[in-house]
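Thread: sanity check for a docking pose with 2-acetamido-2-deoxy-beta-D-glucopyranose

Original post by kr_44:
Hi all, I'm comparing my docking run against an independent structure prediction. Below are the sequence and the ligand SMILES. Could someone generate the full complex and paste the structure tokens? I mainly care about where the ligand ends up relative to the chain.
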Amino acid sequence: MIFIVTLFISIHSVFSQTSTSLCILDIRPSSSANNSNCIAGNWGGFLNNSCCGLAFNSYLYALGQRANQTNHIFLNSTEQNDCLASMKSMEGDVLSCGFEKLISGAGGCSDYSVTDVVNKLGHRLQSLSEDCNLLGMDNQSDKVCSACLRRWEKMGDLSNNSKDLMEFEGEICRFAVLVSMTSSRIDDERWVQSVYKCLGEQSLPMASSADDHGVKVGKNIKTGLWILIGGLVGITILVILASWILYRRSIKAKLPKEKSESNYSFSKGSSSLMIPIKEVYSATNNLSAANIIGYGMTGSVYKGILSNGQHVAVKHILDDGHMETFLREVTSLSHIRHPNLVSFARPL
Ligand SMILES: *[C@@H]1O[C@H](CO)[C@@H](O)[C@H](O)[C@H]1NC(C)=O
Ligand SMILES: *[C@@H]1O[C@H](CO)[C@@H](O)[C@H](O)[C@H]1NC(C)=O
Ligand SMILES: *[C@@H]1O[C@H](CO)[C@@H](O)[C@H](O)[C@H]1NC(C)=O
Ligand SMILES: *[C@@H]1O[C@H](CO)[C@@H](O)[C@H](O)[C@H]1NC(C)=O
Ligand SMILES: *[C@@H]1O[C@H](CO)[C@@H](O)[C@H](O)[C@H]1NC(C)=O
Ligand SMILES: *[C@@H]1O[C@H](CO)[C@@H](O)[C@H](O)[C@H]1NC(C)=O
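Reply from moderator J.T.:
Ran it for you. Here is the predicted complex with 2-acetamido-2-deoxy-beta-D-glucopyranose included:
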């Protein structure tokens, strides 16, 4: 025990000596610091290179430690520049990885403290912790990670529903929640690293196009499994939605059909309706959390009512990395003609 402690302290002091920079974080290189190792994931496309994954984990961990001590979540741009400069010496060039997006000063979630996150989220943060707490155990199943991941992806709607900011804000909010959650258990390094691993590797389809280091062979099976699960969940949701919409329609048989044709256009070469994105926002009350009726691998599904009274289900894809999968799913489903299936519409 004493041996382990002294070893830890001496490793620690070696690194504190080497990083004599202005960085206010205590960033330690990831234990398997190996820049040839690009398998750590790209956080659903948040990083634009999955070789940045390990360095990003070190950065997140250091933010978590600081949050534990100071209650602050993100660095401001000056502070971050100092830290990225100091990381350069141990992790290679991290300046074009995408960490730059995680800075304070942009309002909203970027300026939240841990206390703000706790106050805003309350029991939702509790549920997230519960779902993610089981990560890192020897007997952990894949289900644990997907439960944790799904919860975390929902945290984006913590922000005010300002339409333009939403995509970007959502990411910042999710990371603010992640840093807050890990800060309360930051000494449990094994757990924290398992959380990073689970959430960071979420978008393997995208990661595989970003780098080719021959380490993907084993992962492809896992990817296939995810796509399969995603597809099944998606199809189930779609079938349920279709029946629901059909049911509502049969009640409200007096739909103003002509109006729908004047407001929305049909896309070329297909019979899909094109609906202006503005209309989608107003139909779903700005993608309000109260309208959520389901969660899939790629994002949440919202119920909504178009201005002509038509009921729709809107799938909000949070991560472009899953876009292709979703489009394939939609394309194949839209070829099916059946009295019990309604047709798809898509925003302009
Ligand atoms: C780092 O990568 C090299 C090969 O590129 C490998 O031999 C070595 O074991 C790796 N080290 C760690 C800690 O993963
Ligand atoms: C960042 O914070 C430091 C204090 O930690 C402050 O001196 C500096 O002016 C801030 N920079 C910006 C760009 O806000
Ligand atoms: C990564 O993304 C940042 C913006 O977040 C951009 O400035 C940088 O050029 C990108 N790097 C690469 C290699 O695409
Ligand atoms: C949302 O709006 C309220 C008041 O309009 C404001 O107090 C709050 O800080 C805003 N939250 C975010 C995340 O911008
Ligand atoms: C996993 O192990 C922990 C104790 O290490 C136990 O509490 C938990 O019930 C186990 N879970 C499963 C699914 O076996
Ligand atoms: C800081 O971390 C320790 C150990 O992980 C934990 O016991 C403590 O509650 C944390 N403090 C805060 C404010 O999160």
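The domain at 224-347 is CATH 3.30.200.20 (Phosphorylase Kinase; domain 1). Hope that helps with the comparison, let us know if your pose agrees.
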